[in-house]
Structure of ATP-binding cassette, subfamily C:
Amino acid sequence: MLKTLKFFYSIAWRERRDYIVLLLISIILNVGQPFLNLIIPKFILEELVGGRRPDVLIELAACITLGNMLFMALIHIVKTNLAKCDDWFDRYLNDGISQKSMSMDFALTENPQALNQYRKASEGIAWYSGGMKGLSESVQMFFSYIFTVAGVMFIVAVKSPVLLVVAIFAVVGGSVAVWQTNKCYKIEFEVFPKVNRAFAYVTGSVLEPRYSKCIRLYHAASMMRDQFEETTKQCAKIFGYTAVKIGRWNCIGSLVNFLKNLCIYGYLGYMFLIGNINIGDFALLTGSANTLKDSLQGVLNQVQDLRKKLNFMEEYVKFINMREDTKLGSLPVDTNKIPMIEFRHVSFRYPSVKEYVLKDVNIVIPQGQHLSVVGLNGAGKTTFIKLLCRLYEVDEGEILLNGVNIKDYDYDAYMKALAVVFQDFKLFALSMRENIKLGDSEKEEQDLRSVCELSGLANKIDTLPKGLDTQIYKFFDKEGIEPSGGEMQKMAIARALYKDAPIVVLDEPTAALDPIAEHEVYSHFDKLVGGKTAIYISHRLSSCKFCDMIAVFADNTIKEYGSHEELIKKQGGFYAEMFSAQAKYYA
Ligand code: ADP
């Protein structure tokens, strides 16, 4: 718990020292004001029943009213400035989540536990804990109560020590109630992110165009409604359970408070009646005993509240500390050299999956070779590319680029050597230009135009009033376009070509293209990838004809390897069988 506290306040110390100063001033103000309102009324009452001197009464009244005004004004100023810092912190912490999401180990992005942790982190610093604002409020209150307790304890111990016992009993009773209530909130926090994720999926998908088409065409509305009802039921069950428990413990808390008041006012009333204390002391002691009880209770509540908030915020720390994509290599990649790739006895299985997806894969892709990769669904073709891209590390064997293990290359330099279009590539809600350039501002505008022409996107751009500056999607611009599947694919190809890397990998690049566009990609393939080393994954075996070599993936390895002419002749061969099955329909 203290580690979490240290984590957040060391950020504050490092980045915003004014935040810490404001917190300290706020604590001083929080402690000062109650004492002003405890001590001055004692003297006012004593003056009213005693000397009744108007000038003294005016001075005391001025002291309490102006003092309170001054406190209020200062508290307001400090709060306003703290709110600005809290805003800054909110952005800082959320930025931390998005930076981490982009830098964490890629395998974690496909891991449900890690995705859950992401949600817990976001909710932990916002909804449940109230973020840095919520945490700092508790820290301020905690220290304010501690100092207030010390002050009023001194007054009560000197004047009426019995009241200390009453206050302590009341605090113990009240704390049990608060502790039990917090336990309920913890239960909610444990269960809620899971239900929430399901809820967000069920409610969000109904609106998303790609789902809403299926919902309408396959009458899936009632299935979605059932899912929605199930999720709502789960939420209601959790809330119902915790609401009853919280209500019960709130009642117990109120009863304890009632008994405490009975004891304080009964005892002090009696002392006043028998003449042991005067009216000023009566006011001071009832006020102090109540303040003592409230402050002691406050200390315990804040300890529990801090624990609760820090538990939630710890999820953020856990997420931020998740495994980074640490890439250790440091060798430069010679981008002027046409690369040679080699997989040597490579075996791999996904984390937490027992079976190997690839087993003892061996292949050499010489400089400038265009390799076609084919195989049935799930044969491991995309995994082969993911390994080449260092998104996962091989379990056995090694992958070499120009004879050097790819792990030994500087990661950024290695990434620059690869231009990859995955099947599940994504376009961003940015302009077409930004989507193709992706932050690369070095190249000329002319390069942009030529890749658009090569990928077949230029015709579309010419029809758009804003050309390349047209926004994709309507998130940020109502004039943004919803590109078709084929247009998106062309944009992804343009993005890869613009990168102008020496290795080009296209994973099913024509799946969404119309036959004419597909034919263009095939016939321009040499122009598209030039003399670069290229890997082309496709189900359309006709695409293999324009590649130099073909690797057929099956049974978790490369089952067949050769040119189209060689493989087609292989009697009973896997490739020959697949090719003749497709040829029947495409001949
Ligand atoms: P292909 O591209 O040939 O269709 P993939 O390489 O995508 O095949 O997948 C190969 C196998 O690995 C499939 O059985 C698939 O379900 C499994 N797989 C893919 N990604 C993951 C993952 N992140 N975790 C576990 N299994 C995966």
The radius of gyration is 35 Å. The mean pLDDT is 87. The pocket of adenosine-5'-diphosphate is lined by residues 110, 350, 353, 357, 375, 377-383 (CB under 6 Å). Residues 91 and 416 are 31 Å apart (CA to CA).
